[in-house]
Amino acid sequence: MQLLALLMVVLAVAGCSTYKLHLEANVGELFTYKIEPQLFNWTHQVISEQFRYRPSLQHYPDLPSWMRYMYSHEYHAGFLYGTPPGSAAGKSLHLDLVALNRQNYETRQMVISLFVAHKFITPNVVQMKIDNLNWVHLMDPGRVENLRNIFRKDLWPSSKEDLSVVFMESAINMGGRLPLRPQQREGVIVHVGSFAQFSPRLKELQEEVRPLYKLPSCTYKRTSVQKIFENVGFKLDWCAFKMVGMESPTEVLYHNNHASVRPKEQLKEHHQQQQRIEEERWLGISREDVPMRNYIDEFAFAFAIPGMILAVLVGMLSAVLCFQHQKFSLHIDYPMSSTVQMVQCSDTKPMQPVTTLKSLKDPNFLLDNTSMRSQSPSNSLYQLDTGASGIYARPKPPPYKGGTLGRNGVDI
């Protein structure tokens, strides 16, 4: 019975899928770790994307702020990477890593203990963007070593002892745009740093690419060191190539065996550097000093000038029109009518016919005139003063009575 109980305890311990792993990272230096199925004793993969991983800080739902996790479909593995800050120096982090087998839904757990070792942050950094690679490609130690060799052997020989990759991130996560074609690479931002001073060749290279900083991207530009990077498979965007340097603190120089520089001189240079930083720092203005915008004056100024121009134009146009109207009225000629019409006055008797207007050119005018003369009263005609008897002229027109005329000219 005791042997059976011991066997059951051993099986229970063996059935618990919890593993422990100890890792180490340095402050100011890129930390990377690849998560593969072999880490959980899964040797083969039956279906595509069979395994999934979920890392998090122990007893917390997320990772530390400086650490990121991304899964690569190209390598079928997960990657933990990040650069520990100075505040994490000397501390140990415990990560819970849960793995899922999507074929049979088996889960296994691992605890990763990560110790962050203290290290002085490199003051001189070279920033660059590699266009023909993705972030996962720089997880390969061989590519990272090739990149370091370019600086250690050609561009920055004095950094041979301590050159390291300080920062690495996908260009998409840094605000870049996805490529138009899925076959193209997204690009990766890389920073390498060292305690050594920048070499003259690096300074010449920065002066060569400095006019390109105003452009967002310039992959077409070629530089004097283009071939050095292309020979090992790197195509750089020279608009993003920059050198960031600062004076090293006294304790950093001391621990790096810079005995040729005395501590007092180092401290003086450090204070001078701090003063330059304070002078170059931009200080914002207070809210009370912000000038207030007067919209009333702006509206008055905006409407006054157009209103004055409109008034002047209206006055000029009115003067021109009035002058033309007076000139036109002075030169009007009223044509004399060649036709003489005669109006027959009718009494208010209801049965008396009303004659129509006749022209003197009408051949029947004399006949009608005789009939009119016979019907008209004798007092309605007047004689001429010429002395000839029996000669009558046309009667005087009757006074206007204020009647209304219809469409055919008949009094209504």
Task: Please describe the structure with a list of short key phrases separated by commas or semicolons.
412 residues; alpha+beta; 4-stranded mixed sheet; 4-stranded antiparallel sheet; 8 helices; 13 strands; 20% strand; disordered N terminus
Describe this structure in words.
There is one protein chain. The protein has 8 helices and 13 strands. With 412 residues, the protein is of the alpha+beta class. A hairpin with a 4-residue loop joins β4 and β5 (77-82). The chain is elongated and about 145 Å long.
Query: From the helix content, strand content and strand pairing, which structural class follows?
Result: alpha+beta
Mean pLDDT: 77
Order of helices and strands: HEEEEEEEEHEEHHEHHHEEH
Indicate the proportion of strand residues: 15-25%
Largest sheet: 4 strands, mixed
Secondary-structure map:
Layout: H1 2-15, E1 18-26, E2 31-35, E3 51-57, E4 67-72, E5 77-82, E6 92-101, E7 106-117, E8 124-130, H2 141-155, E9 164-170, E10 188-194, H3 200-209, H4 226-230, E11 242-244, H5 250-255, H6 263-280, H7 295-330, E12 341-342, E13 358-359, H8 365-375
Parallel strand pairs: 1-7
Antiparallel strand pairs: 2-5, 3-6, 4-5, 6-7, 8-10, 8-11, 9-10, 12-13
